[in-house]
Each structure stands twice: as C-alpha cells, then as structure tokens.
Task: structure prediction
Amino acid sequence: DTAVSQTPKYLVTQMGNDKSIKCEQNLGHDTMYWYKQDSKKFLKIMFSYNNKELIINETVPNRFSPKSPDKAHLNLHINSLELGDSAVYFCASSQVGRSTYNEQFFGPGTRLTVL
Amino acid sequence: EDQVTQSPEALRLQEGESSSLNCSYTVSGLRGLFWYRQDPGKGPEFLFTLYSAGEEKEKERLKATLTKKESFLHITAPKPEDSATYLCAVQAMGSGNTGKLIFGQGTTLQVKP
Result:
C-alpha cells in the first residue's frame, strides 16, 4: 500500500555514465515533483509535472531530463553524471487541480553517489 | 525573493524538556505553510499545513502556530522517538497552481532519554 515509491533506493555509478530513477504514486494525484536534497539536507525543487505537462523547470543542468508517461509515473534521466550530482533525489506527489492548497507526499528517496 | 529560514539548525533536549522550533519566511503572499518530519534515510513525512495568521494545529506532542512572519513548532514533553529533522516549507501565492514549495534548511532535533 506504498503511496509514493522510487527505484532504485541506492545508485552508485562512475562519472560520465547515464542513469535513470523511476517514481510511481498510487494516490491518484495529478501533480508529481522531483527534489534534490544536498548533504546539508536542503531540499530544492527541480521539476514538476501536472497531468503529464511540465509546469516547473528550475535552474537545472540540461543533463537532467524528466519524463512523465502518465500522471502516476515520473522518471528522471541524468546524462553524463558529475561528482556534484551526488545527492538524495526525492519524488513527491500532490493534488493541485481543484484544490486550493496542496500537501505533498514524498517517496523514500534515491541516494545517488557518483565516483 | 521568497525565502525560508529555520532556527536553530540543531537542538538537543532531555526527554520531557519542552521547546520550540522557529521558521521565518519572506514570501510575496502566503498560500500555505507546511511542516514535515524527516527521519534519517527516509523521505519527509507531512505533519501540518497552516493557511492564515493565528491558526494553530496540534498532533500528539506537536503544536504548530503561524504569524504573518513566522511559524513555530512547539514540542511539549518530547520523547526520544521525536528525534528527527523538522522541515518547514512555504507555498507562495505567486506559485499559481504549480504547488511549488520553498523549503528551509531544517532543524535537527535530538531528544535524549
């Protein structure tokens, strides 16, 4: 009965590689997000999709490309990984449409380590 | 620029020793203020949403309050299981229907038995 799930939980890879992280939510929400949490635990939004449409695209290198095949799934592909990409990546979802306010529910996170 | 600042960065309490965490915000119109709890190795867990100054919400030993410039998370008689990082986030009116949240850097609470 997991609400927001991510795979993999851990990802260790070499510089220059390409990797993907997958996220799924079963809450019936219309909006999904990707966040990056650095070593100081600062959580910063990267992207957001509403009903498969990109609605937030923060200042993120274009090596990062999100894709939403449907409103229950949001994937993050990262090309040419760099050392500075090492962080914990969180997926979240919320119901924004027909809702004045929204609480976001987070997945367990993917810890990415670039060597 | 919209901004959220939490203090203190870290807090150590003895079991039963009540205290408060602070979240100061600067935002162009507040749509909502959110408190989350994050345990090590896990994702943030939603606690409260506050919408307007003067509003208060409670859950077990936690009570969140809101003014026009800041929010407090009061912890009454904490237990070791309350140890976690507490995150504050705001949603600005200017965010429209994007749901965009701006987070503070968190307060890491340690409660010793």
The mean pLDDT of chain A is 91. Residues 46 and 88 of chain A are 12 Å apart (CA to CA). Chain A touches chain B through 27 residues (CB under 8 Å).
